[in-house]
DNA sequence: GCCGTTTTCGGCCCGACTGTTTTCAGTCG
């Protein structure tokens, strides 16, 4: 298995943890974390860049030293420096940092005073009431550690965006009804529309005497009040999700919203720009002048906060410090795709296979969304569990669609198929049948465990078929459930570009496949994207919004996406 | 360990809450 970018970033983050525990310079620690992020954010393989003779020290936050360390990892899979570090502090200690309440200082104390090296050691020491005796610890901290140990075991995963939505919307409605509450906004990674969220950040403006904090911690779904103050409180809900509430004055609303939307990396980078302009930026506003004579220059809305540091407004989805700040300075941010740009759905199933609605119901639902076309794309015969269509049943469906089309003037029902890519790279239905369709989506639903080379070859071979139009859910991952299959995405994209193949951004909230990095990579390579819900019911068509979120995170504009086109123009993309 | 329109040294974002304290360190976001 070649060294992936995530392998390198994992090693750097691990080093940062261990350095921190061993009391190293905090800025040196940060340097490793910054570098880990840079590596993670590269859409191209770092090892490949190295092989191509590129100078990695040109990348942000990577200097001569870390470039050499990356080269060592690429060559040996590990770092001599890490081995040496682990002589000083056991590697497992970094796991203790996952426990809330435990940072590097306390972990160091636990290690040096009690010899604790693992979560098991920690549990035993807490149960034996040894921890409360340490300096800087106490009974309460010990009890919190025990509670945390249980939680970390139960759930370590981030919450999918759509699941978080189900939880947070009722909570916001509850907050909105409280006396004196004005604005209620969800900030954080939720507002940036990340595919998963770690916790939720809610921002509230209210009258001075509002009881919103007490009501928040008293919400019926709360299982634990983690912290409660005048302006900030944290709770844990039954689902395990942590929610932070911040109360800010209206005059600071924009600054606070900006601050708590993040990402942290984005904020840090923008605040550096502010410092250079002799401005101070925090959640209360942007300020000019000395401490005793401060003047607020921005704060009530986000636009003026951006303007105060010379930036165009950056949509939340882009705030990851992946080049959006430079683009905002130069005035060349992309105009991101919007939900209203979508003119039709290109991936839907009916109860002919594993869908739950009839052909007619799906058409009605698509029409009520204001679409002008809907493609029916059933599974093919290889997917037996989904009652995939064979040649005969597909031909029958084609007839049904043609008949129904005559009943709906102005609305186009496209004839498609989600045909399986078989193990040898052939397609699951003969070419002469595929020729009768408007287009095909071709997907991998089996043999996920081939090597990256074999899987890549398999898909490229399938793409050689002139009837191959869209590659369905290209990586095969299911968020929190199944990793993407090993694949050389760069090669796949190159192959798609050469052959005029379109890539699907599957909008299902469990898939969101392509991910944001891959969307951006495709855009940069000039590959077109289809945002498809893969709807198995009429309601499933509404998942389009999650696809739009992901597309926006991937810097996509209307022009990058084919189902923003009118049907006549759309069909041209399927001519190879 | 990185970085440079304060450029090879000396900086490196900023504030709230908790628990263990007697004025603040540690942690978190």
From TrEMBL:
Its cofactor is Mg(2+). SUPFAM superfamilies: DNA polymerase beta, N-terminal domain-like, Nucleotidyltransferase, PHP domain-like, Sec63 N-terminal domain-like. It catalyses: DNA(n) + a 2'-deoxyribonucleoside 5'-triphosphate = DNA(n+1) + diphosphate; a 5'-end 2'-deoxyribose-2'-deoxyribonucleotide-DNA = (2E,4S)-4-hydroxypenten-2-al-5-phosphate + a 5'-end 5'-phospho-2'-deoxyribonucleoside-DNA + H(+); 2'-deoxyribonucleotide-(2'-deoxyribose 5'-phosphate)-2'-deoxyribonucleotide-DNA = a 3'-end 2'-deoxyribonucleotide-(2,3-dehydro-2,3-deoxyribose 5'-phosphate)-DNA + a 5'-end 5'-phospho-2'-deoxyribonucleoside-DNA + H(+). One of its GO terms (cellular component) is cytosol. GO terms for molecular function: class I DNA-(apurinic or apyrimidinic site) endonuclease activity; DNA binding; DNA-directed DNA polymerase activity; phosphoric ester hydrolase activity; zinc ion binding. Keywords: DNA damage, DNA repair, DNA replication, DNA synthesis, DNA-directed DNA polymerase, Methylation, Nucleotidyltransferase, Sodium, Transferase, Ubl conjugation. Its main location: cytoplasm. Residues 54-73, 94-113, 129-148 form the Helix-hairpin-helix DNA-binding motif class domain. Residues 3-320 form the DNA-directed DNA polymerase X domain. Residues 344-423 form the Polymerase/histidinol phosphatase N-terminal domain. Repair polymerase that plays a key role in base-excision repair. During this process, the damaged base is excised by specific DNA glycosylases, the DNA backbone is nicked at the abasic site by an apurinic/apyrimidic (AP) endonuclease, and POLB removes 5'-deoxyribose-phosphate from the preincised AP site acting as a 5'-deoxyribose-phosphate lyase (5'-dRP lyase); through its DNA polymerase activity, it adds one nucleotide to the 3' end of the arising single-nucleotide gap. This is DNA polymerase beta.
